[in-house]
């Protein structure tokens, strides 16, 4: 076991070679800051640092900085580092940081010294504690120390590897300092926090050397530039495929025990899973129990520096594995020896990426515990035990895998990765004079996709407004015509009050919509008066709505609510409501007639609403049914509205009441209650002859108006809506039979709407049907 562990000679308290700094020394701090400021100014001014040295990159060596943080990344980076060192066009810079410098992890910086690399900086960047917080703090510490080093080294390219938190600080720092980054092993998927870190580094990096074709395709789908992606294979495979695995005697006796034969031992390497520390500790516990029970020669490697590793070390000690005759422990094994162990072990158990990647090259049986490597591509040598929650399951897996031999798999490399990477770096050299700005290759955006997602998250809905003489109502209405929320206020008498109230109610409704998970597509307004729907203007209104002529409704509401706005008159809206949600569904030619306080309607011909040349079509209340007759709100007289509207009935009711001829037993008028059309209808139903006459006259007038419509338009349906409709429908049918042309009368269907809110629903339907168009 490698227990030696001092930091590099004379390196304690230093950030990098030759620049000992006392952080409390003010002068040195000032100097440091001005150095930083100078560097920053150079970068901000857009003048590349190397130009200030008068050196064109074509006339000098390319400075390639390799930063290594632990034994695992060094095993991938070392082959590239050797090649860079041997290349006369390259100047290799080496930064050593992270767990390399920590005794508990084997002080692996020594490997780098043994390989005779000149190290340009040692950075102590690990905050001890082995928990999530200390990992985050370590990233922060590295971010504090790295800029200094990069300012000094001025690399043209920084090579980072993998998915460790150290690598994230390296990539973050380099990206912020406009240093080009080559990321090795991006695009892979493992299934832990490592994924987030790996993909983040991908986004920060300018170049990618990946290992598998799937990884390459993932990089492309992450919007990376195809020209900057190299499918290299894994650099360790170069060494892996050229090593002599038969040369095992010394290695096996050194690490596992004297006289141990190939295949007669197990290697265990289990790292904590940082997103599920508790679960992974339990799994480690169970694995040790299972291995103790299986009881063959077993080599247990100490875990990496992830959060939770300290607890694992404690578990090893608790079982006294240090003194167990069949167990040996190791903090660090040099990579070339590790490969030989891997090639000759009877089984590798744990969750190390070495099991997935390196072991495949030898067909070594692997048991992968838990989810840490679950997403990675693997050969058939790997047996996944996802729920390793009992000792029995793990033991069963060991029995299945131990001493088997699988076909070798070469998913991760063909032995020529380094050669490819070097060719790639030479190509990058040509880019150095180009702007560093990284471009992301976004795929064309698909509208349908985003709409589908919206639809899953939120109900596509409309805000509908019904602005009548009496009430101002706002509702949230779903694509299916469901009224999800409704508000009602009395319609204020002046324009300004009306607009204020309307905007206030709409703002409130949009907030309510978020609460109800509704995506508001737009606002549909149904209003009394003549409307130009193309411009969203109320052109003119009768006395029912004062101060409601030449009003632009669309612009102020659209700009306050940031939503598209449609406006139409209430009769037209009612017709649209019937068409989408009511009895007009499926009918191409029909007329909606609203009989409420006033009379209005809408005409649908050939599936389209008829607006007319001057937006005056379907003013059905003003169909003349008499040469003289009562005065109408429109200024004329004898209009159907002046006979059959709520206002007309009220007028007649008042006349009867004034003559004391309205009230009959059963019809009551409470103290101070206003006489309305309702009372005349009640009185008629209870046999008041004078009241019956009023209602009959109203039916006659409405029937005549409908005859006019039949003879003008010949619709298939007439849909009566409004609160008076049920009282008129039979009378209207009777008039038609009596007075309309038989061919028109026989085919027509007169029906009463079953929609509670045709105008509101119609206003919503404009939004829901036409949300992609400005006009309809
Ligand atoms: Zn009129």
Report the principal-axis shape: elongated
Content-based structural category: alpha/beta
Percent of residues in helices comes to 40-55%
For the record, the count of structural domains works out to: 4
Bound molecules: zinc ion
In order across it, which strands form the biggest sheet? Answer: 3-2-1-4-5-6-7
Strand content: 15-25%
What would the CATH topology of the largest domain be?
A: Rossmann fold
Residue ranges: pLDDT <50 for 5 or more in a row?
1-30, 40-54, 448-455, 772-776
Question: Mean of the pLDDT scores?
Answer: 87
| Major sheet details | 7 strands, parallel
User: How large, in whole angstroms, is the Cα Rg?
Assistant: 42 Å
Number of helices: 26
Indicate the CATH class of the largest domain. Alpha Beta
Organism: Branchiostoma floridae (Florida lancelet)
InterPro entries: ATPase_NBD, ROK, ROK_cs, UDP-GlcNAc_Epase, UDP_GlcNAc_Epimerase_2_dom
Pfam families: Epimerase_2 (PF02350), ROK (PF00480)
GO molecular function: hydrolase activity, hydrolyzing O-glycosyl compounds; N-acylmannosamine kinase activity; UDP-N-acetylglucosamine 2-epimerase activity
Account of the 3D structure:
This protein is α/β, with parallel strands linked by helices and 776 residues long. It has four domains: 61-241 and 410-441, Rossmann fold, CATH 3.40.50.2000; 249-401, Rossmann fold, CATH 3.40.50.2000; 453-582, 2-Layer Sandwich (Nucleotidyltransferase, domain 5), CATH 3.30.420.40; 590-754, 2-Layer Sandwich (Nucleotidyltransferase, domain 5), CATH 3.30.420.40. Helix content is 40%, strand content 17%. The strands form five sheets. A seven-stranded parallel sheet has the order 3-2-1-4-5-6-7, with helices on both faces. Strands 10-9-8-11-12-13 form a six-stranded parallel sheet, sandwiched between helices. β2, α3 (109-114) and β3 (121-123) form a beta-alpha-beta unit. Zinc ion is lined by residues 622, 632, 634, 636, 639, 641.
